[in-house]
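User: I'm writing a tutorial on reading structure tokens. Could you give me a worked example: one chain, its sequence, then its tokens, then a sentence or two explaining what the tokens reveal?
Assistant: Sure. Here is the example chain.
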Amino acid sequence: MGRVSHGLKATTSSILLLMGTSLASAGESVDYSADGADYKGYYAPASGEAKGLVLVIHDWDGLTDYEERRADMLAEMGYDAFALDLYGADNRPETTDAKKAETAKLYDDREAMRARILAGLETARERSSTDQAVVMGYCFGGAAVLELARSGAAEDVAGYATFHGGLATPEGQSYPADTAPILIAHGGADTSIPISDAADLARTLEEAGITYGLHVYSGAPHAFTVFGSDRYQERADENSWSVFQGFLSDNLGASEG
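And here are its predicted structure tokens:
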């Protein structure tokens, strides 16, 4: 799973959105460490008092300008945002095989995956004026979000959100009863993550009594939020982002207006 290579097919509104976030960018690279290894994240602070903190987890490409732009968008909305790094400083795989290898390392060592997410969350909180956070991610990052949710290891997390992410629950894992609300944005035409996985996750969360929202966007393929890619679908991207704004408002207790 992961982002397709960027092309030149962005819509006019997407291009304007990217230009706007680029011009308004106030973010900076952040070097930090976890278990003796070096990582490089991206922090975009809200202008003025922050409504809350949003942790952004990258897809299988590693942390790139896509996640940085999303962090900038969140900062413009009034949230402190930190795009973490799960691979290591300057480790940004370019080939499909390299991306598969990097994700496989963390799928095979989920303890390491969780530890790196928690290190990113701690780093974000060192810079933010608020501890309460929502954790969100794309593709592989969406799967990582759910891994953190199942672990129950993060404190003061007000919600989790996954966009076209891996949804399967590994054998032997489950969601704690006190798991914060989960938002799931899924493409109805996603051939990488079957819609049956979304249904299975909804059933799992329902049985566990966990608050969740499952939003399926008809005709939307895998990676439907990625600006400029062949898979980008403006309608699904804008609708899912609007739903996410409401999710942030509801769970971080602040108005978007």
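What the tokens reveal: The chain has a mean pLDDT of 90. The helical segments are 12-23, 65-76, 96-108, 110-127, 140-151, 195-208, 234-252.
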